[in-house]
Amino acid sequence: MGDNSRTKLSKSVLDMKFMKKTKDRVEKEADDAEGNAMYSSEITEDMKKSGTIFVNTSIMNCRNLIEGRLSFGGMNPDIEKIMSDTYVKQLEDAEKQNEKDVSDQEMAEGYSTLNKTMAKKFQTKKARSKKFMKPKPMD
Predict the structure, then answer these.
(1) Out of 10, 71, 128, 129, which could bridge 76 as a Cys pair, Cβ 3.0 to 4.6 Å?
(2) Backbone phi and psi for residue 49, each to the nearest 5 degrees, phi listed first
């Protein structure tokens, strides 16, 4: 129903036996229009061009739920091996995220220059203006 200039068929006409295909098409267009309106903020132009749109309605990612089978106490060694592998991967990812991008020394230097800059900003005009001092004559 992207074209608003088209006239809508009445419900009684669409209920007629020979209009079944048209009724299905009209309902499909209405559903598509509703879906486009609902997900228009999430669907980008690239997604529209590629034609493949996947909307994940699962809450597993939101709540950090575990996906799949679990085993404890040696009941299923294969599953426990898979669980330990995924746990090791999660630990490695956490360590990578905890690595420092800036060393402590660089952070301290940056903070000290920031403090100096802010101190200059809040100085009075009298304190900011420094008189030029003549260099001492060399003998």
Answers:
(1) 71
(2) -70, -40
pLDDT in tens, 98-132: 877 788 899 899 999 999 899 888 888 777 777 77
- Single out the residue of 10, 37, 41 nearest to residue 26, CA to CA: 10
| Residue from 3, 34, 9 nearest 23 by CA | 9
3-state helix/strand/coil string of 90-133: HHHHHHHHHCCCCCHHHHHHHHHHHHHHHHHHCCCHHHHCCCCC
Q: How far apart are CA 123 and CA 94, in angstroms?
A: 44
Q: Is 42 within 8 Å of 56 (Cβ atoms)?
A: no
Give the pair of three-digit tokens for residue 23.
Answer: 């009724």
pTM across the whole model: 0.31
By the 10 Å C-beta count (0-12 exposed, 13-18 middle, 19+ buried), 87 is classed as exposed
**Per-residue exposure over 42-54, b if at least 16 CB sit within 10 Å of its own CB, e if not:** eeeeeeeeeeeee
Q: Report domain extents, the chain.
A: 11-50, 70-120
The span from the CA of 48 to the CA of 115, in Å, is: 50
CA distance 123 to 108: 23
